[in-house]
């Protein structure tokens, strides 16, 4: 009996550690580094200390996503998040990408625009942030619970300004490739600009970018089209969180939104779709939930990545039951640079410390989480 259980457990372990062919990328396991903003990129420029941080988490054939990188000078909304719109920012990413590649990992750049999740302090000439709406956001406590963020009511983009923002995403994707990244992930989740267009709680436009589901998805799909034309769909993925209502950005029919986007992305032959689990009400808050991503997983033809509240056991289960191809880990990977190794041998995990998530220190809470060997 005991033996049987052991064999069963071994089989479970294997699913998360099985190789996977993601389009042209040969991955040696299914454990993805989720995009994690760390606010240590002073003046919006990635810093040399990120070389160690990312290479600590890189494995041969592993898949890493960068923290969200701003696509333009109107994209930012937090202190010291990296950008990817200037030459200096692109150059700064190069040694970081090289170090990850030296370890044999695949590295995509998450490209992002915060939209109304910003305030005048982060905007050029102290102007209002841009969005699909002019509805503002109430002040919020950040995920780490350590600081309150205040937002300025946004300025609603005019219809004829939208192509410029689409173009910013396209240029950012081109810049990411120039920096050496293997591809880009379009950040369409968590209440930021693209999600603001998606969700009917926020989008109150009366032009072709608002109203119907088709109209609310138009902005994301124009970005997808521009980027896939520019760099090729084989190295483009998109992250979505239809079920989340983070940043006052919820939708009355998230399942329809998720399905519509999965099917629309099929038309562009996007490499992957990265979905945040319905159980994630906010960025990091897990709750009981009846909804499932399975219908969306079935509808999408490319690689399906899931994220949100996963541990070793249910990540294994998701892959074993074919509910996902890959599983992205956020907080556990943040605190365990050797997470794939630990999952392999079922070692205990370091606990993450929320208070240092967004600390600007180049070491503390960043590159000082111990590896297994250091503990023993
Ligand atoms: C410190 C921190 C920073 C994050 N930054 C980003 C980000 O830049 N882009 C993004 O899409 N999600 C971001 N997230 C969400 C994570 O990618 C992930 O979806 C979330 O942590 C839930 O997964 P987990 O339970 O494995 O941590 C962040 C989460 C944390 C804790």
Question: How are the SSEs ordered, and which strands pair?
Answer:
Elements: H1 2-16, E1 20-22, E2 25-27, E3 31-33, H2 49-56, E4 63-70, H3 87-102, E5 106-112, E6 130-131, E7 140-141, E8 148-149, E9 155-156, H4 162-178, E10 183-188, H5 193-198, H6 213-231, E11 236-240, H7 254-267, E12 272-276, H8 294-299, E13 303-307, H9 312-320, E14 326-329, H10 331-335, H11 339-345, H12 372-375
Helix pairs in contact: 1-9, 2-3, 4-6, 6-7
The protein binds flavin mononucleotide.
Can you walk through the features of this model?
The model is unreliable at 1-12 (pLDDT under 50). This protein has helices at 2-16, 49-56, 87-102, 162-178, 193-198, 213-231, 254-267, 294-299, 312-320, 331-335, 339-345, 372-375; strands at residues 20-22, 25-27, 31-33, 63-70, 106-112, 130-131, 140-141, 148-149, 155-156, 183-188, 236-240, 272-276, 303-307, 326-329. The longest helix has 19 residues, at 213-231. The strands form 4 sheets. An 8-stranded parallel beta barrel has the order 3-4-5-10-11-12-13-14, surrounded by 5 helices. The protein is an alpha/beta fold and 376 residues long. The protein has 12 helices and 14 strands. Bound molecules: flavin mononucleotide (FMN). Pfam families: Oxidored_FMN (PF00724).
């Amino acid at each position: 009996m005991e033996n049987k259980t052991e064999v069963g457990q071994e089989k479970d372990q294997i699913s998360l550690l099985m190789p996977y062919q993601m389009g042209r990328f040969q991955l040696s396991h299914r454990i993805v580094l989720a995009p994690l903003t760390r606010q240590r990129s002073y003046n919006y420029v990635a810093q040399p200390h990120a070389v160690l941080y990312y290479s600590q988490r890189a494995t041969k054939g592993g898949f890493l996503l960068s923290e969200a990188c701003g696509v333009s000078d109107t994209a930012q909304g937090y202190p010291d998040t990296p950008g990817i719109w200037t030459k200096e920012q692109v150059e700064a990413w190069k040694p970081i990408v090289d170090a990850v590649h030296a370890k044999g990992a695949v590295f995509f750049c998450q490209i992002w625009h915060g939209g109304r999740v910003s305030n005048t302090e982060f905007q050029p000439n102290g102007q209002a942030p841009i969005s699909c709406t002019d509805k503002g956001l109430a002040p919020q406590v950040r995920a780490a619970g350590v600081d309150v963020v205040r937002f300025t009511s946004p300025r609603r983009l005019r219809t004829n300004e939208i192509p410029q923002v689409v173009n910013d995403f396209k240029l950012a994707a081109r810049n990411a490739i120039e920096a050496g990244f293997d591809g880009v992930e379009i950040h369409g989740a968590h209440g930021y600009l693209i999600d603001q267009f998606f969700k009917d709680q926020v989008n109150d436009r009366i032009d072709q970018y608002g109203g119907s589901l088709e109209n609310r998805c138009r902005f994301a799909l124009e970005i997808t089209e521009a980027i896939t034309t520019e760099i090729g769909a084989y190295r483009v993925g998109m992250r979505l969180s239809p079920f989340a209502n983070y940043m006052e950005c919820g939708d009355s029919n998230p399942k329809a939104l998720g399905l519509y986007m999965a099917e629309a992305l099929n038309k562009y032959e996007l490499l992957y779709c990265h979905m945040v689990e319905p159980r994630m009400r906010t960025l990091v808050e897990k709750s009981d939930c009846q909804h499932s991503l399975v219908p969306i997983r079935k509808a999408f033809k490319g690689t399906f990545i899931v994220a949100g509240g996963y541990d070793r056991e249910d990540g294994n289960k998701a892959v074993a039951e074919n509910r996902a191809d890959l599983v992205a880990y956020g907080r556990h990977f943040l605190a365990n640079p050797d997470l794939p190794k630990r999952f392999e041998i079922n070692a205990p995990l370091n606990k993450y410390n929320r208070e240092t998530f967004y600390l600007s220190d180049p070491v503390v809470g960043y590159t000082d989480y111990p590896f297994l060997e250091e503990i023993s």
